[in-house]
Amino acid sequence: MRILYEFTLFRVFEDIVFLVVLFYVQRFWLRGALRFIQRTSPRWIRQVLHALWFLAVISVTVTVINSTFARFLPRHGISTWILAGGKLWLVVSLLGFVGIQIVRALNLLAARAVTTLVPQRRERFDPARREFFRYAGYLAGGLPIVVGTYGFFGERLDYRVRTIEIPIPGLPFDLDGMRILQLSDIHLSDFLPLSELRRVVAMASALPADIIVVTGDFITSAHDPLDACIAELSQLRAPLGVWGCNGNHEIYAHVEAKAKTLFAQHGMRLLRQESAELTWQGAKFNLLGVDYQRERPPFGKMRPMLTSIESLVRKDIPNILLSHNPNSFVRAAELGIELSLAGHTHGGQVQVEILDHSWNPAKYMSDFIAGLYRLPLGGSGNSAAPAAVADGAVPAAMAPASSAQKYASIYVNRGLGTIGMPIRIEVPPEITVITLRSEV
Predict the structure, then answer these.
(1) Number of H helices, E strands in the chain
(2) Which residue of 32, 82, 208, 230 is 20 to 30 Å from 128, comparing CA positions?
(3) Within a 13 Å sphere around the CA of 135, how many CA atoms are in the beta-carbon half?
(4) Lowest mean pLDDT, pick from 6-15, 263-272, 424-433
C-alpha cells in the first residue's frame, strides 16, 4: 500500500512538472509566432496567419486536455490526426526550445569570454557574433522539427521483418529449427491505431512460426483499447499457440489481471510468474513468463529480479523466458534460463551515427538495447559485460570456449509502437522470427 501511495504521488508530481514545462515552452513558441505575424504584411495575410495561430492554440489545448485529463475525442477519423499532430508538435517544440536555449546560453558565455579575455573591451555587442548565433538558433530550433516530422511520417510505421538463428545449449535435436515469432511494445494508441495493428497481424500471419509470443506493453495508458488490441492479436495462428507477458505500461494502466483474462477469453495465454511445459515434435521445453520486473520502486532501493520464478526453472529441459524488461537477463542467465525474449527499450527509437560512433538513448536504461546478447549460463565465467551478437549471425568468437562453458542468450525486440517521442530514426519497428538451433 505504501509503495502504491508513493507511486501515485510520483505520477502526480510528474504531471505537474510536465504541465509547467509545457506552459513555458508553448508560451515561447506562440508569443514568437504572434510577433512574427504582427510584422507581416499585407493585412489579409496577417489575418489568415492570425486565424491559423488561433487554431494552433485550440489544437494544442485540446490535445493536452484529451491526453492528460479527460479523453473525449473519438479514436477514429480526423480526431486521430489532430491528436497525433498535436502530440508530435508538443515533442518537437520541446526539443526545438531546448536547442534554442542552449544556443542562447552559448552566446552569453561567448560574450562573457570576450570581456574576460580582453578586459579593455567592455562592449559585448558584436554584430558578427550576433548574426552567427541568430542563425545557429534558427538551426537548433528548426532541426528537431524537420527531423521529428521525418521520423513521424518516414520510419515510424515502416515495419521490418528480422530473422535470426539462436543456438541453445542442450536443445534437443527435435527442437532444432523450431521458429518463434516475437512481437513487442505494440502501444496501441493515437500513434499506432488499430488499423496499423491489423497490418502488423497480416504481415505476421504470412510468416512461418511454430509459436508466437508477445512480450508486453499492449497499450500505453488506461485510456487505450486493451480489449481491441488483444482481440486483434487473437487473429494470429501457430501450432503451439499465442503466448504473452505483461509490460510496465500494463502496470501503469492497472490492467495486468485484465490482460490475462482477455488472453484466456481469446484462446491465448498470458503468463504471470508462471510456466508451461510445451512439446514440439516429441521434445519438451519450459516456457516461463513474468510481469514487468521493476528494478526499483519510485522511491526505494534496488531489489533483485525474477525472485518469483526460481522454483519454476527446469534443469531437465530447455527454458525460454518472456520478460518485458531486458535487464532481468543477468539474473535469468544466473538461474540457468537458456533463452530470454524481451522488449521495453524500443531499440532507443532513435540512433545517430557520428564519425563511426553511434548514440542511442536506450543505452541509459539498459546494456541490452536491441538484438542478440549472450552471457555465461548459470553465472559461470566473467559476466561483467554482455557480449553483443550481430543480428542473423553468431560469430565463432561468441561460441563457448570449451564444452564446459555454456551461454545464455537474450533477444531484445525493437518493438512496434513508440513512447515519449512519436518518431523512429534508423530504428524501424520490427517483427522477429527466431529459429532455435542445437548448440554443437
Answers:
(1) 9, 15
(2) 32
(3) 5
(4) 6-15
Q: Where in the chain is the domain with CATH 3.60.21.10?
A: 160-438
Cell output for 240: 503451439
Question: What is the residue whose three cell numbers read 486565424?
Answer: 51
pLDDT in tens, 196-231: 999 999 999 999 999 999 999 999 988 899 999 999
Distance CA 410, CA 25 (A): 40
Question: How many Cα atoms sit within 13 Å of 106 on the Cβ side?
Answer: 14
- If you average pLDDT over residues 106-134, what whole number do you get? 70
Report which of 426, 417, 21, 54 is spatially closest to residue 224, judged by C-alpha positions.
417
The position carrying cell 527442437 is: 175
pLDDT tens for each residue of 290-301: 999 987 655 556
Query: Tell me, what amino acid is at 271?
Result: L
At which residue does the C-alpha cell 515502416 appear?
158
Band of residue 381 on the pLDDT scale cut at 50, 70, 90:
very low
Strands (E), 133-290: 160-168, 179-183, 211-215, 242-245, 269-270, 274-280, 283-289
Distance CA 190, CA 82 (A): 10
- State in words which class domain 160-438 has: alpha beta
pTM: 0.80
Q: How many CB atoms lie within 10 A of CB 222?
A: 13
Strand duo 357-359 + 371-376: pairing = unpaired
> CA-CA distance, 140 to 17, in Å (whole number)?
24
Reference 430, options 417, 410, 411, 416; nearest CA is 416
Contact 376, 407 (CB under 8 A): yes
Weakest-pLDDT range from 18-22, 352-356, 376-380: 352-356
> What is each CA distance from 427 to 156, 159, 374, in whole angstroms?
9, 10, 21
